[in-house]
């Protein structure tokens, strides 16, 4: 059978799956016929599946991997006889489980060369080389749904910008225990060619993108590389804005670069704060403290750069007091309008090969690995917290359907407070702050993060 490849993305945080097009470009270099499909917006062409020799699913995160397995059930039901690969962080982390479920090959890290060799059946030993050797390339004519079909950037109650998405680097220098990247990259990162990234941003702008989200795990792993890209794009399209993700540790270490980041069009920085509790931060090996966050936040505030922290409030170390303190600090720090509602409910995911598994207290509480849901289940010692997390998850899910106005976020916070701290009335400052007409804080419309 002639080689013909279908690259599939199931979920990439409501963004254009940039990684698919890099792999498409690499396959085109080898003259392999290739098609891309984004199952978050496009239908699976069941009747055409047998025309492909290889199906390759992009699995950068937990949700994407589970959705890929569901899609695979439909494909297998049609008697597909070709070969199937998963590629991305979670393909690497769950390789053993995925191979047991009938996946022929799994690729993580710098997957392009190894995946292409596997498709071509040339010099593939079964052991991955995680250092890139091939040439990155963009496809000659990438096809995908209109950019406006994806998530966007809400910049006011009535205005939403069309979102584009690229990466300037992969991997990460750090070893946060709960993160899926360290087991795959081992504290390394690699950069994508500057002109390639600039070309792709320009292509997306021509297709209507008004704001570009940089999907790098940490934009300041190599700050000068990314900044040079944004500077050049800013010279071509001065109206285009950006957002980036940067660790608190790097915001402080590389603070001298933040004025330039603001100057070239960055309007907000996402940072995985995870917790206000220093003991939990130490367990997660985050490399920062609550006090570091306050310092970074103040520095960004003076520059007019919005710092948007994200959280995992429910961890094995969370107690009633820890969660209640979390809510109190959200209010005191005036973060209610800035926080996506799902952030109040997120529960620590312990994946296969997680750095958390080296901790005895984690080993003592986890249940056997769940091969369907792809994580180690765990429960709180306090049943009240178990019930609260599930209750808030359902509450937020229902409230999200009503919209995400700033007023709705204040009302939702009030409901969460009343369920988590029923014996303590909301302080007067809540009612004062909720009535203020404050500046609208831009946010990405896709609310889920894993």
- Assign a percent range to the helix content: 25-40%
Structural class: alpha/beta
Q: What is Rg?
A: 22 Å
| Percent in strands | 15-25%
Q: Architecture of the largest domain, according to CATH? A: Alpha-Beta Barrel
- Label the overall shape: globular
Count of separate structural domains = 3
Strand order within the widest beta sheet: 13-12-11-10-7-6-14
Q: What's the average pLDDT?
A: 93
- Low-pLDDT parts are 129-133
* CATH homologous group name of the largest domain: Aldolase class I
CATH topological fold name of the largest domain: TIM Barrel
Describe the structure in brief:
The protein is built from 17 helices and 14 strands. With 450 residues, it is an alpha/beta fold. It folds into 3 domains: 5-120, Response regulator (Rossmann fold, 3-Layer(aba) Sandwich), CATH 3.40.50.2300; 146-311, Aldolase class I (TIM Barrel), CATH 3.20.20; 313-450, no CATH class.
Please write out the topology.
Elements: E1 5-9, H1 18-29, E2 34-38, E3 54-58, H2 62-77, E4 83-87, H3 89-93, H4 95-100, E5 105-107, H5 112-120, E6 152-156, E7 159-166, E8 169-171, H6 181-185, E9 189-191, H7 194-206, E10 211-214, H8 223-236, E11 241-245, H9 248-253, H10 258-263, E12 266-274, H11 278-284, H12 290-303, E13 306-311, H13 320-332, H14 360-365, H15 383-400, H16 406-420, H17 428-435, E14 443-444
Parallel strand pairs: 1-2, 1-3, 3-4, 4-5, 7-10, 10-11, 11-12, 12-13
Antiparallel strand pairs: 6-7, 6-14, 8-9
Helix pairs in contact: 7-8, 15-16
């Amino acid at each position: 059978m002639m080689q013909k490849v279908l690259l599939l993305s199931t979920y990439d945080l409501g963004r254009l799956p940039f990684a698919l097009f890099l792999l498409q470009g690499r396959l085109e270099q080898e003259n392999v016929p290739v098609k891309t499909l984004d199952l978050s917006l496009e239908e699976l062409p069941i009747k055409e599946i047998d025309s492909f020799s290889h199906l390759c699913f992009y699995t950068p995160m937990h949700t994407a991997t589970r959705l890929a397995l569901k899609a695979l059930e439909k494909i297998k039901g049609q008697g597909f006889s070709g070969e199937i690969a998963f590629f991305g962080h979670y393909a690497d982390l769950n390789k053993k489980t995925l191979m047991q479920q009938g996946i022929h090959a799994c690729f993580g890290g710098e997957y392009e060369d190894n995946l292409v060799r596997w498709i071509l059946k040339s010099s593939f030993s079964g052991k991955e080389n995680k250092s890139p050797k091939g040439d990155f390339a963009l496809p000659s004519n990438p096809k995908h749904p209109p950019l406006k079909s994806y998530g966007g950037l809400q910049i006011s109650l009535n205005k939403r910008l069309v979102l584009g998405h690229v990466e300037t680097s992969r991997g990460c220098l750090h070893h946060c225990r709960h993160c899926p990247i360290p087991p795959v990259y081992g504290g390394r990162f690699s950069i994508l060619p500057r002109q390639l990234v600039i070309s792709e941003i320009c292509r997306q702008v021509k297709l209507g993108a008004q704001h570009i989200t940089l999907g790098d795990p940490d934009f300041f792993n190599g700050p000068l590389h990314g900044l040079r890209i944004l500077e050049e794009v800013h010279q071509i399209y001065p109206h285009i804005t950006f957002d980036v993700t940067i660790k608190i540790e790097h915001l402080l270490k590389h603070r001298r670069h933040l004025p330039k980041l603001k100057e070239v069009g960055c309007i907000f920085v996402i940072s995985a704060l995870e917790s206000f509790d220093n003991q939990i931060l130490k367990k997660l090996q985050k490399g920062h403290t609550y006090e570091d966050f306050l310092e970074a936040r103040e520095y960004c505030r003076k520059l007019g750069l919005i710092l948007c922290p994200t959280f995992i409030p429910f961890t094995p170390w969370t107690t009633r007091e820890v969660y209640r303190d979390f809510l109190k600090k959200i209010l005191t720090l005036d973060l209610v309008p800035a926080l996506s509602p799902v952030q109040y409910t997120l529960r620590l995911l312990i994946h296969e090969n997680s750095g958390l598994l080296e901790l005895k207290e984690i080993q003592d509480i986890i249940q056997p690995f769940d091969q369907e849901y792809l994580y180690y289940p765990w429960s709180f010692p306090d049943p009240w917290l178990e019930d609260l997390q599930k209750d808030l998850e359902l509450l937020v899910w229902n409230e999200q359907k009503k919209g995400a106005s700033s007023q709705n976020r204040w009302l939702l916070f009030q409901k969460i407070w009343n369920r988590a701290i029923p014996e303590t009335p909301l302080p007067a400052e809540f009612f004062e702050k909720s009535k203020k007409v404050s500046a609208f804080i831009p946010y990405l419309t896709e609310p889920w993060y894993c």
